[in-house]
Amino acid sequence: MSSHQLAANGHDLMPTTGWCWLEDFSSLAVGPGIRGSNVTVPRLHGDIRTANKRYTATELVLPFWVKGIDPATGAMVADSERQLSLNIDRLKRIFAGANVQLVHSWDDEGSRILNVELAAEPPTVIWHRSAPAAATLAVPLVAPEPFWADEEQYTQELVGPSGTSVELTEFADATAPMTDLLVTFLGPISNPLLVHGDRTVQWHGVIPAGRQLVLNTTTFQASAGTGTPWSPDLRQVEWAGGPNWFELDPTRTPFEVELSHTGGGAAAARITAARKYFNP
């Protein structure tokens, strides 16, 4: 049977010495809610649905047990209450950084990451009568970018004549929207256009053989990639359907991207990203 493993900024949150452990993993699977609301119109039954709602930040609370033992060896100490206080402080320090990266993994699979920060509410501590001394510590966290992501990046190749639709097999296991993409158009290609549902991104211009155009859909940067150096003009990028240049949505059926271009013949592009998930 598989077992959980969890770390925060490189610190093991399930150490074998047992000085702390996460009591319940279910909070890791909370996931984000929907941002926005439908429109209520007087004298009209029901509401008018607002389409394309976005997701909120993910809020989660990690409940820990902490014991007053030596964190390095798990051995009993003379003053377990003082050691408990030190261990609680040690655990709080792990989550005190401006950005904390949670890494969750199973014994038999890869790892997924979630970047979090402390929520506005302070952590809460409840001491318990026991020997050695023990306490529960609840750490409230917020994930501004609400989805878990694979540590590994995947690349989907798109090759064919204008109008070619390619099934996104490299991202088939993803469950949440992916917006932080690297879209690469490989020359020679003219006026390349990607379409995914109502999301489109297009470069208005010709990319000669030997050149590449790399679009970062989150930072709105265009670069020359690994091909012949040149300076792309951002004014030649046109997109529609959302705030980012492009997005992959696993809820779309069929889950595919269409590559169109002018100039005839076959052309090539690729999409690189980490798969995103609602759960770790």
TrEMBL record:
Protein name in the entry: Minor tail protein
Source species of the chain: Pseudonocardia saturnea
